Amino acid sequence: MAISTALIVPPVFAETPEDLFEIHCAACHNSGGIGNPGLAPPLNRPVFWQALGSKAPEYLTGVVVSGLAGRLDIQGQMYIGLIMPPVASTTDEELIEIGNWVLQSLGETEEVLTQDLLDAARESQPSHANLRAMRPAVD
Ligand code: HEC
Predict the structure, then answer these.
(1) How many CB atoms lie within 10 A of CB 137?
(2) Mutate-to-test residue for ligand 1 from 52, 68, 101, 128, highest number of ligand atoms within 8 A of CB
(3) What is the position in ligand 1's atom list of the atom closest to the CA of 132?
(4) What is the pLDDT of residues 12-60, one digit of tens each?
(5) How far apart are CA 22 and CA 13, in angstroms?
(6) Is the Cβ–Cβ distance between 44 and 33 less than 8 Å?
């Protein structure tokens, strides 16, 4: 019996990390993470991600696991109306791909989000207050 080539051909609908961001994050954060003023902040802020430094993957993982609420002032806009819910619509693999795209392409860092960090955040369920305390005072 011939082995079906379908088994070794990559899936036709393979999505890039940017596609995954569009599906799971852009409804609020806008295409390319440029933000929706007054609704959800831009994520294409290298100064912010670089200021977080080695804490950037932990912060991002905490936000996608716990969500985030409370006032944020970013680039002259106030974000206070909407709570970010924990991200529940992705697989772990997809969430890691999205996270690394945010850290590396939008954040212009070399930081890496791993399954271990995701597991650790699920274990510790960081509070919104603790996440907010990690944020550097830069836009
Ligand atoms: C339902 C809307 C919604 C979706 C979907 C959403 N977010 Fe958010 N996100 C928000 C809101 C609103 C805030 C600001 C919360 C606040 O004001 O405290 C936020 C904040 C953030 C922050 C913190 C930014 C900062 O400056 O500290 C990060 C990081 C983030 N989101 C990443 C993501 C990623 C990655 C995804 C997709 C996996 C995603 N979000 C999906 C609404 C959303």
Answers:
(1) 7
(2) 68
(3) 27
(4) 667 999 999 999 999 999 999 999 998 999 999 999 999 999 999 999 9
(5) 14
(6) yes
